[in-house]
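Incident log, support desk, overnight shift.

02:14 A customer reports that sequence design results differ from what the structure should imply. Their input is reproduced verbatim below. On-call engineer (initials T.W.) acknowledged and began investigating.
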C-alpha cells in the first residue's frame, strides 16, 4: 500500500471515529455505556473514535442497530474491506502497518512479510484448485504481500522477531533456486539487523507453538493483539487474557530456539542444500 493510499485509509478511520463520537453523544451514551451494549472490552470504543482500530462487520452492524444509523457503519466497513487480502486476514494486515513490534512464528511456511515474490507465487499457485483460471486473483494477492513487506522499509519500522520451525527451512517451495533465495533473503534481513531470526530445530521435538502459526503485535497507543491462522480461516484476538497466553507460549518456544548466529548459519546451510538439489553450484 502506497503512502497516499495509507493516508487515505487512515483519514477514513478518523472520519468513522468522528461520526461514531457524534452519534454516541447524540444518543446520550458514554463510551463505557456503548461498549457494554456491544460487549466490547475496556476502552475499545475510545480506540474506534480515535481511528486506532476499526469495528469488524458484526460490531459495525451492532453499532448501526444501537445508534439507529440506517446502516452507515456496515456500509463504511464494507467499503474499507475492499482490497488484496482475504476476509479472515484483512484486519491483521491493517494492524501490521501501525505496529511498533511484530513477533512472528512460522510453523510450515515463511511468514508473509518475509516472503520473496517467487516464494509467495509458488505458495499461492499450489493453493489454487485450477491455477490456469485464477492468475488475476494470484496477482492481486501477490500485490497484497508486497505491500505488507514494505512495513520493513518504513522510516520508523517496527521491531520484528521471526521464529521459524525447522520445517519451514526444509520444505522445498517452488524448487531449489526459489527456496534458496528465500532463505538467503531472511538471513540477509537478519544480518542487516532488520529482523531478529531464531530457528526452532527438529531436535527440540514438541514445542508450545506446534499447533499454529502466530503473529503478535504491539502498539504505542492501543492494546496488543495476537493472530492465529488455519486453512482459509484466521482469528484476531485482542482479549487481554488470550493475548497474554499467546505471549507466554511464544516466550516458552523462544527459550527452545537456536541463538541468532546459529539460526542464520542454519538458514544458509539449508539454502545451499536446496540450491545443490537444483544443480546450482555452491
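02:41 Re-run completed on a clean worker. Output:
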Amino acid at each position: 500500500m502506497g503512502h497516499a493510499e495509507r493516508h487515505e485509509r487512515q483519514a477514513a478511520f478518523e472520519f468513522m471515529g468522528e461520526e461514531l463520537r457524534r452519534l454516541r453523544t447524540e444518543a446520550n451514551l458514554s463510551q463505557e455505556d456503548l461498549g457494554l451494549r456491544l460487549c466490547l472490552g475496556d476502552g475499545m470504543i475510545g480506540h474506534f473514535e480515535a481511528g486506532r482500530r476499526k469495528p469488524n462487520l458484526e460490531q459495525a452492524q451492532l453499532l448501526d442497530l444501537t445508534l439507529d444509523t440506517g446502516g452507515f457503519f456496515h456500509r463504511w466497513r464494507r467499503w474499507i474491506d475492499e482490497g488484496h487480502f482475504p476476509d479472515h486476514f484483512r484486519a491483521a494486515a491493517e494492524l501490521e502497518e501501525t505496529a511498533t513490534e511484530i513477533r512472528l512464528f512460522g510453523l510450515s511456511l515463511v511468514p508473509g512479510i518475509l516472503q520473496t515474490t517467487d516464494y509467495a507465487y509458488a505458495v499461492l499457485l499450489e493453493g489454487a484448485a485450477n491455477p490456469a483460471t485464477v492468475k488475476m486473483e494470484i496477482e492481486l494477492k501477490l500485490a497484497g504481500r508486497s505491500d505488507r513487506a514494505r512495513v520493513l522499509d518504513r522510516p520508523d519500522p517496527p521491531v520484528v522477531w521471526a521464529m521459524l520451525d525447522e520445517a519451514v527451512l526444509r520444505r522445498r517451495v517452488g524448487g531449489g533456486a526459489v527456496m534458496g533465495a528465500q532463505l538467503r533473503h531472511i538471513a540477509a534481513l537478519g544480518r542487516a539487523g532488520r529482523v531478529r531470526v531464531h530457528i526452532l530445530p527438529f531436535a527440540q521435538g514438541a514445542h508450545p507453538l506446534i499447533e499454529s502459526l502466530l503473529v503478535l503485535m504491539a502498539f504505542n497507543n492501543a492494546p496488543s493483539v495476537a493472530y492465529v491462522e488455519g486453512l482459509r480461516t484466521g482469528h484476531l484476538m485482542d482479549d487481554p487474557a488470550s493475548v497474554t497466553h499467546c505471549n507466554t507460549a511464544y516466550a516458552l518456544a523462544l527459550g527452545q530456539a537456536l541463538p541468532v548466529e546459529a539460526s542464520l548459519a542454519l538458514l544458509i546451510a539449508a539454502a545451499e542444500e536446496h540450491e545443490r538439489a537444483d544443480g546450482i553450484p555452491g
